[in-house]
Amino acid sequence: MRRRSLLAASGLALLGPGCLRDTGPSLDPAAGPATEESPGSPSFSVTEAGVFPGYVTAGDDSIGTVDGAGQYLLVGTASTSERPSADEFAFSVDGETYTHEPSDARLYWPEELAATESFGKWLIFPLPETADATDARLSWPGGEWTPPERVRERLTEPLPDFEVTFDAPERVGPDESPTLSLSVHNPADVDGNTVLALNRVGPQIAYAPVREIVLECPPGETVDREFGAHSPHEPTDPREVTYHLHVAGGGRTSRTIEPAE
């Protein structure tokens, strides 16, 4: 069964243009093996990897989450010469083989790739919600990589059912500085990452990305964050502000903040 995030909201507002990660995703560094082509001084290697319920992509005027698979393995790579093409990589786990997920959208995560036209150094593998990762391997012509133990454990365990809550005032006056409170609770006995993407409409913005939020949540704990909120009284005439929040694995919710006298 596909695990979902539970979303509860009572008003929403965030300020922060561009691609802003609240905190880095949980990535495990791991050096890749040398290729046959250049033993001892690899031209290509795996540098980091993490397991997530989805990832963030950017369109012309908005961002959103891709979350159609049970879970996603993101693999960071580095090369000192020509890198193998994405379709030359294969990830084998639990007796099945998976390939990189291509997309016409730009990857909006991690932030240094926000302005690029491709997924750059990242490989993304859509996987089942759980899998026996004992013999998991990433392979390409001339090399292969074994995920570290932490990554294999996350591939094996089901994703937590995160409980995501937002709180913000529904109406604010011209002299108020509203604040958004974000709370992500992990009721499971395993840790995991939650992935969110936020867009804003108004007061003088037709539609624009605000930020992505990627949080690592320890088992049984709650992670809280606060953000400065955009006032509906700025910059000139009072107008409502609407935010659309996407939660990987949890759908979308929209909230409007009204100006008060």
Notes on the protein architecture:
38% of the residues are buried. Mean pLDDT is 77; it is low at 8-25, 31-41 and 110-119. The protein contains one helix and 20 strands. With 261 residues, the chain is mainly β. It has one helix at residues 149-156, and strands spanning 6-10, 28-29, 44-52, 55-58, 63-66, 71-79, 90-93, 96-98, 106-107, 122-127, 137-140, 143-145, 163-167, 171-172, 179-185, 192-201, 208-217, 222-228, 241-247, 251-259. Helix content is 3%, strand content 43%. The protein has a five-stranded mixed β-sheet, with no helix packed on it. Strands 1-13-15-18 form a four-stranded mixed β-sheet, with no helix packed on it. Strands 2-3-6-10 form a four-stranded antiparallel β-sheet, covered by helices on one side.
Q: What key phrases describe this protein's structure?
A:
261 residues, mainly beta, single chain, four-stranded mixed β-sheet, five-stranded mixed β-sheet, elongated
